[in-house]
Amino acid sequence: MSGTMRDAGAAAPGEPAPRTGQAPSPEASQAPSPEASHAPSPEASQAPSPEASHAPSPEASQAPSPEASQTLLPEAIQNIVRAGVPLAGAWGVEVLAADAGTALLRLPHHADLLRPGGSISGPALMALADVAMWAALLSMTGGRDESLTSNLNITFLRRPAPRAVLAEARVLKRGARLAYGEVALRSEGSADVVAHVTTTWAVVQPPS
Q1: What is the pLDDT of residues 65-86, one digit of tens each?
Q2: Which domains does the chain have, with CATH numbers?
């Protein structure tokens, strides 16, 4: 019996050796691949692009155009007004203030502008109001404005004294085609309005 029996753990001749103590194969013991560990890719960990952070574009942060931002002194607008309307120069019309769509003009006292009764004539008041509105428009465009009066309504509220007249003009709205404004006329030294004007202008862009 001893010649035919063998240990249970011994391999018979021609049989492969038992695998009970075999170490795991290299494939089984390999560390997980980078893909299996799900490490974030370089693209996923990159900082957000400038577009993703919503930084303002150069166009959005641009300064206003020189024409919109340029402010002229009243003396400069006075020169433009007197050159464009020679009658304003002949009457000595002064631009006392002009800024951001408003203007204050002064018409000196002239005996030849009086009507019977000793008050300032209506045509003189209308001309002053018209020039004052143009000065207000010039203050919005850096002195470059060739708009034209399309309508002017005047209401005479009281008799002006025979002295200098002040005209306070204000642009109410300036669109692409039309501009609307109003002018209050007062005798110098008085707070009372002697005439009120509403006016519409056709906007004309100067040649570039």
Answers
A1: 444 446 889 999 999 999 999 9
A2: 66-202 (3.10.129.10)
